[in-house]
Amino acid sequence: MQPSPIRDLTVGLFVLAGLAAIAYLSVQVGGLQGERGFHLYATFDQIGGLRPRAPVVISGVQVGQVSSIELDENLRARVNMDVDPKLELPVDTMASIMTEGVLGNKFLALEPGAEDELLKDGEEIAFTENAVLLERLIGKFVNDAGLDEE
Amino acid sequence: MRLPAIERLGFKSQLFVDSLGGFAIFTLNVVRCAALPPFRFRRFVDEVFDAGVLSLSIVCLSGFAVGAVLGLQGYDTLVRFGAEANVGAVVGLSLVKELGPVLTALLVIGRAGSATAAQIATMVTTEQLDGLRMMSIDPVDFVVGPKALALLVVMPLLTALFIIFALAGGYLVGVMLLGLHGGTYFASLESAITFADDIVPSLSKTLVFGALVGFIATFRGYTSEPTSSGVSAATTGTVVTASVCVLLFDYVITALWGI
User: Fold this and answer.
1) A41 has which bridge partners?
2) DSSP annotation of A31
3) Closest by alpha carbon to A95, among A133, A118, A136, A124?
4) Which residue of A10, A75, B125, B201 lies most exposed, with the fewest beta carbons within 10 A?
Protein backbone atom coordinates (compact mmCIF):
# COMPACT_ATOMS: atom_id res chain seq x y z
CA MET A 1 0.00 0.00 0.00
CA GLN A 2 1.43 3.37 -1.02
CA PRO A 3 1.85 5.99 1.71
CA SER A 4 -0.73 8.70 1.11
CA PRO A 5 -0.75 12.04 2.94
CA ILE A 6 -4.53 12.39 2.65
CA ARG A 7 -5.10 8.99 4.19
CA ASP A 8 -2.72 9.79 7.02
CA LEU A 9 -4.47 13.09 7.57
CA THR A 10 -7.89 11.43 7.82
CA VAL A 11 -6.52 8.85 10.26
CA GLY A 12 -5.06 11.66 12.37
CA LEU A 13 -8.32 13.59 12.28
CA PHE A 14 -10.25 10.45 13.16
CA VAL A 15 -8.05 9.74 16.18
CA LEU A 16 -8.31 13.37 17.30
CA ALA A 17 -12.10 13.35 16.92
CA GLY A 18 -12.32 10.11 18.91
CA LEU A 19 -10.11 11.45 21.70
CA ALA A 20 -12.10 14.69 21.76
CA ALA A 21 -15.30 12.67 22.07
CA ILE A 22 -13.85 10.69 25.00
CA ALA A 23 -12.70 13.93 26.62
CA TYR A 24 -16.11 15.52 26.16
CA LEU A 25 -17.85 12.48 27.67
CA SER A 26 -15.44 12.45 30.62
CA VAL A 27 -15.34 16.13 31.45
CA GLN A 28 -18.68 17.56 30.39
CA VAL A 29 -21.04 14.57 30.70
CA GLY A 30 -19.13 12.60 33.32
CA GLY A 31 -18.18 15.61 35.42
CA LEU A 32 -14.49 14.72 35.74
CA GLN A 33 -12.53 17.60 37.17
CA GLY A 34 -9.19 18.17 38.73
CA GLU A 35 -8.69 19.53 42.22
CA ARG A 36 -9.99 23.07 42.00
CA GLY A 37 -12.37 25.33 43.79
CA PHE A 38 -13.12 25.59 47.38
CA HIS A 39 -13.90 22.59 49.55
CA LEU A 40 -16.44 22.82 52.31
CA TYR A 41 -18.38 20.24 54.22
CA ALA A 42 -21.54 20.10 56.26
CA THR A 43 -23.00 17.43 58.51
CA PHE A 44 -26.63 16.37 58.42
CA ASP A 45 -28.84 13.93 60.35
CA GLN A 46 -30.84 13.17 57.24
CA ILE A 47 -29.86 13.82 53.65
CA GLY A 48 -32.89 12.22 52.00
CA GLY A 49 -31.91 11.40 48.43
CA LEU A 50 -29.00 13.81 48.03
CA ARG A 51 -26.44 12.32 45.65
CA PRO A 52 -22.88 13.16 44.65
CA ARG A 53 -22.83 15.74 41.80
CA ALA A 54 -26.03 17.34 43.10
CA PRO A 55 -25.92 21.11 42.51
CA VAL A 56 -25.01 23.55 45.29
CA VAL A 57 -26.99 26.77 44.83
CA ILE A 58 -27.29 30.22 46.35
CA SER A 59 -30.56 32.00 45.63
CA GLY A 60 -31.22 29.38 42.95
CA VAL A 61 -27.95 30.02 41.10
CA GLN A 62 -25.61 27.05 40.87
CA VAL A 63 -22.24 27.79 42.48
CA GLY A 64 -20.80 24.29 42.86
CA GLN A 65 -21.61 20.65 43.36
CA VAL A 66 -21.62 17.92 45.99
CA SER A 67 -18.36 16.01 45.56
CA SER A 68 -18.93 13.11 47.94
CA ILE A 69 -21.09 11.93 50.79
CA GLU A 70 -19.82 9.76 53.63
CA LEU A 71 -20.73 8.71 57.16
CA ASP A 72 -18.64 10.44 59.82
CA GLU A 73 -17.50 8.96 63.16
CA ASN A 74 -20.72 10.06 64.89
CA LEU A 75 -22.76 8.20 62.26
CA ARG A 76 -24.02 11.40 60.73
CA ALA A 77 -23.92 12.19 57.03
CA ARG A 78 -20.94 14.32 56.00
CA VAL A 79 -21.54 16.06 52.68
CA ASN A 80 -18.42 17.36 50.94
CA MET A 81 -18.85 20.04 48.31
CA ASP A 82 -16.79 22.04 45.82
CA VAL A 83 -17.90 25.62 45.41
CA ASP A 84 -16.74 28.57 43.34
CA PRO A 85 -13.55 29.97 45.00
CA LYS A 86 -14.59 33.55 44.19
CA LEU A 87 -17.47 33.36 46.65
CA GLU A 88 -17.13 35.06 50.02
CA LEU A 89 -19.27 33.04 52.41
CA PRO A 90 -19.69 34.20 56.01
CA VAL A 91 -19.08 31.62 58.77
CA ASP A 92 -22.76 31.62 59.72
CA THR A 93 -23.84 30.47 56.28
CA MET A 94 -26.63 27.90 56.44
CA ALA A 95 -26.82 24.76 54.29
CA SER A 96 -30.21 23.15 53.64
CA ILE A 97 -31.18 20.16 51.55
CA MET A 98 -34.07 21.06 49.30
CA THR A 99 -36.09 19.34 46.59
CA GLU A 100 -36.82 20.62 43.09
CA GLY A 101 -40.60 20.56 43.05
CA VAL A 102 -42.40 17.89 45.05
CA LEU A 103 -40.73 14.78 43.67
CA GLY A 104 -37.68 16.27 41.96
CA ASN A 105 -33.98 15.81 42.63
CA LYS A 106 -32.41 16.96 45.86
CA PHE A 107 -29.98 19.84 45.90
CA LEU A 108 -28.03 21.77 48.50
CA ALA A 109 -29.02 25.40 49.08
CA LEU A 110 -26.65 27.79 50.85
CA GLU A 111 -27.95 30.86 52.57
CA PRO A 112 -25.19 33.37 53.39
CA GLY A 113 -25.29 34.78 56.92
CA ALA A 114 -24.34 38.17 58.31
CA GLU A 115 -20.94 37.63 60.04
CA ASP A 116 -17.85 39.46 58.82
CA GLU A 117 -15.60 36.44 59.24
CA LEU A 118 -15.43 34.30 56.06
CA LEU A 119 -15.38 30.53 55.61
CA LYS A 120 -11.98 29.19 54.55
CA ASP A 121 -11.09 26.23 52.32
CA GLY A 122 -11.83 22.91 54.04
CA GLU A 123 -13.97 24.34 56.81
CA GLU A 124 -17.34 23.13 58.01
CA ILE A 125 -20.66 24.86 57.45
CA ALA A 126 -21.99 24.57 60.99
CA PHE A 127 -25.61 25.53 60.47
CA THR A 128 -27.51 22.88 58.57
CA GLU A 129 -31.11 22.02 57.87
CA ASN A 130 -31.97 18.38 57.20
CA ALA A 131 -33.81 17.05 54.21
CA VAL A 132 -37.56 16.98 54.64
CA LEU A 133 -38.87 13.50 54.00
CA LEU A 134 -42.28 13.61 52.40
CA GLU A 135 -43.26 10.21 53.81
CA ARG A 136 -42.43 11.34 57.39
CA LEU A 137 -44.49 14.47 56.93
CA ILE A 138 -47.43 12.44 55.67
CA GLY A 139 -46.99 9.96 58.52
CA LYS A 140 -46.95 12.78 61.05
CA PHE A 141 -49.98 14.37 59.45
CA VAL A 142 -51.93 11.10 59.52
CA ASN A 143 -50.90 10.55 63.16
CA ASP A 144 -51.94 14.03 64.26
CA ALA A 145 -55.25 13.73 62.47
CA GLY A 146 -55.88 10.38 64.23
CA LEU A 147 -55.06 11.89 67.66
CA ASP A 148 -57.40 14.82 67.11
CA GLU A 149 -60.30 12.50 66.47
CA GLU A 150 -59.88 10.80 69.84
CA MET B 1 -20.66 -52.19 20.21
CA ARG B 2 -20.21 -48.83 18.48
CA LEU B 3 -21.91 -45.66 19.58
CA PRO B 4 -21.58 -43.37 16.55
CA ALA B 5 -23.50 -40.47 18.09
CA ILE B 6 -21.34 -40.42 21.21
CA GLU B 7 -18.19 -40.93 19.16
CA ARG B 8 -19.14 -37.94 17.05
CA LEU B 9 -19.79 -35.87 20.19
CA GLY B 10 -16.37 -36.82 21.56
CA PHE B 11 -14.71 -35.92 18.27
CA LYS B 12 -16.50 -32.56 18.14
CA SER B 13 -15.49 -31.81 21.73
CA GLN B 14 -11.87 -32.56 20.94
CA LEU B 15 -12.05 -30.27 17.92
CA PHE B 16 -13.54 -27.53 20.05
CA VAL B 17 -10.90 -27.79 22.77
CA ASP B 18 -8.24 -27.99 20.08
CA SER B 19 -9.42 -24.78 18.45
CA LEU B 20 -9.65 -23.04 21.84
CA GLY B 21 -6.04 -23.96 22.52
CA GLY B 22 -5.09 -22.82 19.04
CA PHE B 23 -6.85 -19.52 19.68
CA ALA B 24 -4.98 -19.02 22.96
CA ILE B 25 -1.60 -19.69 21.33
CA PHE B 26 -2.53 -17.43 18.40
CA THR B 27 -3.56 -14.64 20.81
CA LEU B 28 -0.31 -14.84 22.75
CA ASN B 29 1.61 -14.83 19.49
CA VAL B 30 -0.18 -11.67 18.30
CA VAL B 31 0.41 -9.95 21.65
CA ARG B 32 4.10 -10.91 21.51
CA CYS B 33 4.44 -9.54 17.97
CA ALA B 34 2.65 -6.31 18.88
CA ALA B 35 4.71 -5.78 22.04
CA LEU B 36 8.17 -6.51 20.63
CA PRO B 37 9.96 -4.53 17.91
CA PRO B 38 9.88 -4.11 14.96
CA PHE B 39 6.80 -1.92 15.37
CA ARG B 40 4.88 -1.77 12.12
CA PHE B 41 3.58 1.77 12.56
CA ARG B 42 3.00 2.34 8.82
CA ARG B 43 0.91 -0.85 8.62
CA PHE B 44 -0.95 0.10 11.81
CA VAL B 45 -1.97 3.52 10.43
CA ASP B 46 -3.27 1.91 7.24
CA GLU B 47 -5.31 -0.56 9.27
CA VAL B 48 -6.73 2.22 11.47
CA PHE B 49 -7.86 3.87 8.25
CA ASP B 50 -9.61 0.68 7.09
CA ALA B 51 -11.15 -0.23 10.44
CA GLY B 52 -11.82 3.22 11.85
CA VAL B 53 -12.15 5.96 9.27
CA LEU B 54 -14.17 3.80 6.89
CA SER B 55 -16.50 2.74 9.74
CA LEU B 56 -17.05 6.33 10.77
CA SER B 57 -20.08 7.11 8.60
CA ILE B 58 -22.05 3.99 9.56
CA VAL B 59 -21.23 4.42 13.25
CA CYS B 60 -22.21 8.10 13.36
CA LEU B 61 -25.38 7.59 11.35
CA SER B 62 -26.48 4.60 13.47
CA GLY B 63 -25.66 6.50 16.64
CA PHE B 64 -27.78 9.42 15.56
CA ALA B 65 -30.73 7.15 14.72
CA VAL B 66 -30.43 5.17 17.97
CA GLY B 67 -30.31 8.35 20.05
CA ALA B 68 -33.31 9.79 18.24
CA VAL B 69 -35.42 6.69 18.78
CA LEU B 70 -34.32 6.48 22.44
CA GLY B 71 -35.42 10.07 22.92
CA LEU B 72 -38.76 9.33 21.34
CA GLN B 73 -39.38 6.13 23.32
CA GLY B 74 -38.04 7.59 26.55
CA TYR B 75 -40.26 10.62 26.21
CA ASP B 76 -43.32 8.50 25.40
CA THR B 77 -42.80 6.34 28.49
CA LEU B 78 -41.77 9.08 30.91
CA VAL B 79 -44.49 11.54 29.96
CA ARG B 80 -47.05 9.10 31.42
CA PHE B 81 -45.51 9.65 34.84
CA GLY B 82 -44.95 13.35 34.30
CA ALA B 83 -41.21 12.69 34.42
CA GLU B 84 -40.29 13.78 30.90
CA ALA B 85 -37.60 16.02 32.39
CA ASN B 86 -35.57 12.82 32.83
CA VAL B 87 -35.33 11.98 29.12
CA GLY B 88 -31.70 13.10 29.13
CA ALA B 89 -30.87 10.67 31.94
CA VAL B 90 -32.63 7.78 30.21
CA VAL B 91 -30.93 8.42 26.87
CA GLY B 92 -27.53 9.07 28.42
CA LEU B 93 -27.42 6.16 30.88
CA SER B 94 -28.65 3.53 28.43
CA LEU B 95 -26.22 4.77 25.80
CA VAL B 96 -23.12 5.07 27.94
CA LYS B 97 -23.64 1.85 29.90
CA GLU B 98 -24.96 -0.56 27.29
CA LEU B 99 -26.07 0.53 23.86
CA GLY B 100 -23.00 2.53 22.92
CA PRO B 101 -20.36 -0.16 23.52
CA VAL B 102 -22.49 -3.10 22.33
CA LEU B 103 -24.00 -1.57 19.20
CA THR B 104 -20.68 -0.06 18.13
CA ALA B 105 -19.03 -3.45 18.61
CA LEU B 106 -21.71 -5.13 16.47
CA LEU B 107 -21.38 -2.47 13.77
CA VAL B 108 -17.59 -2.78 13.74
CA ILE B 109 -17.89 -6.58 13.54
CA GLY B 110 -20.12 -6.25 10.50
CA ARG B 111 -18.12 -3.50 8.83
CA ALA B 112 -14.49 -4.08 9.74
CA GLY B 113 -14.30 -7.50 11.42
CA SER B 114 -15.76 -9.34 8.44
CA ALA B 115 -13.50 -7.42 6.05
CA THR B 116 -10.44 -8.29 8.16
CA ALA B 117 -11.31 -11.99 8.20
CA ALA B 118 -12.06 -12.05 4.47
CA GLN B 119 -8.82 -10.26 3.65
CA ILE B 120 -6.62 -12.58 5.69
CA ALA B 121 -8.51 -15.65 4.47
CA THR B 122 -7.97 -14.54 0.86
CA MET B 123 -4.28 -14.10 1.58
CA VAL B 124 -4.24 -17.67 2.95
CA THR B 125 -6.06 -18.97 -0.15
CA THR B 126 -3.79 -17.18 -2.61
CA GLU B 127 -0.70 -18.26 -0.60
CA GLN B 128 0.37 -14.69 0.08
CA LEU B 129 1.09 -15.55 3.71
CA ASP B 130 3.33 -18.40 2.52
CA GLY B 131 5.00 -15.88 0.23
CA LEU B 132 5.74 -13.66 3.23
CA ARG B 133 7.17 -16.66 5.12
CA MET B 134 9.40 -17.41 2.12
CA MET B 135 10.86 -13.92 2.54
CA SER B 136 11.25 -14.74 6.27
CA ILE B 137 8.65 -12.13 7.22
CA ASP B 138 6.38 -13.37 9.99
CA PRO B 139 2.80 -12.96 8.69
CA VAL B 140 1.51 -12.64 12.26
CA ASP B 141 3.84 -9.71 12.78
CA PHE B 142 3.25 -8.08 9.40
CA VAL B 143 -0.42 -8.77 8.63
CA VAL B 144 -2.27 -10.01 11.71
CA GLY B 145 -0.77 -7.87 14.48
CA PRO B 146 -1.51 -4.43 13.00
CA LYS B 147 -5.06 -5.48 12.11
CA ALA B 148 -5.86 -6.79 15.60
CA LEU B 149 -4.25 -3.77 17.26
CA ALA B 150 -6.13 -1.37 14.99
CA LEU B 151 -9.48 -2.95 15.90
CA LEU B 152 -8.58 -2.70 19.60
CA VAL B 153 -7.60 0.98 19.35
CA VAL B 154 -10.45 1.98 17.09
CA MET B 155 -13.24 0.57 19.26
CA PRO B 156 -13.21 3.11 22.15
CA LEU B 157 -12.84 6.02 19.71
CA LEU B 158 -15.78 4.87 17.60
CA THR B 159 -17.88 4.16 20.69
CA ALA B 160 -17.29 7.65 22.06
CA LEU B 161 -18.29 9.16 18.71
CA PHE B 162 -21.35 6.88 18.57
CA ILE B 163 -22.44 8.10 22.02
CA ILE B 164 -21.89 11.77 21.11
CA PHE B 165 -23.96 11.42 17.95
CA ALA B 166 -26.65 9.52 19.83
CA LEU B 167 -26.83 12.26 22.47
CA ALA B 168 -27.23 14.74 19.62
CA GLY B 169 -30.01 12.58 18.16
CA GLY B 170 -31.77 12.46 21.51
CA TYR B 171 -31.37 16.21 21.83
CA LEU B 172 -32.86 16.77 18.38
CA VAL B 173 -35.94 14.68 19.14
CA GLY B 174 -36.41 15.66 22.76
CA VAL B 175 -35.70 19.36 22.55
CA MET B 176 -36.43 20.43 19.01
CA LEU B 177 -39.26 18.04 18.18
CA LEU B 178 -41.01 17.35 21.49
CA GLY B 179 -40.38 20.72 23.07
CA LEU B 180 -38.35 19.76 26.15
CA HIS B 181 -36.12 22.50 27.52
CA GLY B 182 -32.55 22.15 26.30
CA GLY B 183 -31.09 22.93 29.71
CA THR B 184 -33.30 20.29 31.33
CA TYR B 185 -32.07 17.67 28.88
CA PHE B 186 -28.41 18.36 29.59
CA ALA B 187 -28.91 18.87 33.33
CA SER B 188 -30.59 15.49 33.76
CA LEU B 189 -27.98 13.90 31.49
CA GLU B 190 -25.05 15.38 33.37
CA SER B 191 -26.39 14.69 36.83
CA ALA B 192 -27.15 11.05 35.98
CA ILE B 193 -23.74 10.13 34.56
CA THR B 194 -20.55 10.09 36.59
CA PHE B 195 -17.03 9.64 35.34
CA ALA B 196 -15.96 6.88 37.72
CA ASP B 197 -19.15 4.81 37.69
CA ASP B 198 -20.29 5.15 34.09
CA ILE B 199 -17.66 6.49 31.69
CA VAL B 200 -14.67 4.42 32.87
CA PRO B 201 -16.57 1.09 32.87
CA SER B 202 -18.01 1.93 29.47
CA LEU B 203 -14.54 2.55 28.04
CA SER B 204 -13.17 -0.64 29.61
CA LYS B 205 -16.00 -2.57 28.01
CA THR B 206 -15.13 -1.17 24.61
CA LEU B 207 -11.50 -2.24 25.07
CA VAL B 208 -12.61 -5.80 25.90
CA PHE B 209 -14.91 -5.82 22.86
CA GLY B 210 -12.17 -4.39 20.65
CA ALA B 211 -9.75 -7.13 21.73
CA LEU B 212 -12.42 -9.82 21.19
CA VAL B 213 -13.28 -8.60 17.70
CA GLY B 214 -9.65 -8.13 16.73
CA PHE B 215 -8.51 -11.57 17.86
CA ILE B 216 -11.56 -13.47 16.60
CA ALA B 217 -11.55 -11.82 13.16
CA THR B 218 -7.84 -12.35 12.58
CA PHE B 219 -7.92 -15.89 14.02
CA ARG B 220 -10.79 -16.98 11.78
CA GLY B 221 -9.07 -15.52 8.74
CA TYR B 222 -5.67 -16.96 9.63
CA THR B 223 -6.97 -20.48 10.22
CA SER B 224 -9.38 -20.59 7.26
CA GLU B 225 -9.34 -23.37 4.66
CA PRO B 226 -7.42 -22.26 1.54
CA THR B 227 -10.51 -22.44 -0.65
CA SER B 228 -13.20 -20.00 -1.74
CA SER B 229 -15.68 -21.64 0.62
CA GLY B 230 -13.04 -21.30 3.35
CA VAL B 231 -13.05 -17.53 2.83
CA SER B 232 -16.81 -17.33 3.12
CA ALA B 233 -16.79 -19.63 6.17
CA ALA B 234 -14.18 -17.43 7.85
CA THR B 235 -16.22 -14.29 7.19
CA THR B 236 -19.49 -15.78 8.41
CA GLY B 237 -17.76 -17.41 11.36
CA THR B 238 -16.24 -14.10 12.40
CA VAL B 239 -19.55 -12.27 12.39
CA VAL B 240 -21.37 -15.04 14.27
CA THR B 241 -18.67 -15.85 16.84
CA ALA B 242 -17.70 -12.25 17.52
CA SER B 243 -21.30 -11.06 17.88
CA VAL B 244 -22.19 -13.86 20.28
CA CYS B 245 -18.98 -13.37 22.26
CA VAL B 246 -19.55 -9.61 22.56
CA LEU B 247 -23.08 -10.12 23.87
CA LEU B 248 -22.04 -12.90 26.28
CA PHE B 249 -19.03 -10.96 27.57
CA ASP B 250 -21.24 -7.91 27.98
CA TYR B 251 -23.53 -9.87 30.27
CA VAL B 252 -20.64 -11.39 32.22
CA ILE B 253 -18.89 -8.02 32.69
CA THR B 254 -22.12 -6.34 33.75
CA ALA B 255 -23.05 -9.15 36.15
CA LEU B 256 -19.60 -9.45 37.73
CA TRP B 257 -18.72 -5.79 38.14
CA GLY B 258 -22.17 -4.27 37.97
CA ILE B 259 -21.30 -1.78 35.24
Assistant:
1) A80, A124
2) -
3) A124
4) A75
> Using N-to-C axis directions, what is the helix angle for B56-78 and B145-171, rounded to 10°?
40
Three-state secondary-structure class, residue A128: strand
**B223, pLDDT greater than 60:** yes
ipTM for the whole predicted complex goes beyond 0.90: no
pLDDT digits (tens, 9 = 90+) for B32-71: 888 887 778 888 888 899 888 989 999 999 999 999 999 9
Distance CA B228, CA B104 (A): 29
pLDDT for res A103:
63
- Across chain B, what does the average pLDDT equal? 90
A17 touches chain B (CB under 8 A): yes
- Interface check for A11 against chain B (CB to CB < 8 A): the answer is yes
Contacts of A127 (CB under 8 A, 6+ apart): A92, A93, A94, A95, A113
Q: pLDDT band for position A122 (50/70/90)?
A: confident
With CA atoms as reference, the chain A residue closest to B194 would be A30
CA distance B21 to B25: 6
Provide the residue count of chain B: 259
Give the distance from residue B188's alpha carbon to the nearest chain A alpha carbon, in angstroms.
9
Report pLDDT for B134.
92
Asked if A84 and A64 touch (Cβ cutoff 8 Å), the reply is yes
pTM for the model stands at: 0.78
Distance (Å, whole) CA A7 – CA B175? 37
Query: For residues B173 and B64, what is the distance between their CA atoms, to the nearest angstrom?
Result: 10
Is the CB of B181 inside 8 Å of chain A's CB atoms? no
> Cβ of A18 and B189 within 8 Å?
no
B145 C-beta neighbours (distance < 10 Å), count = 27
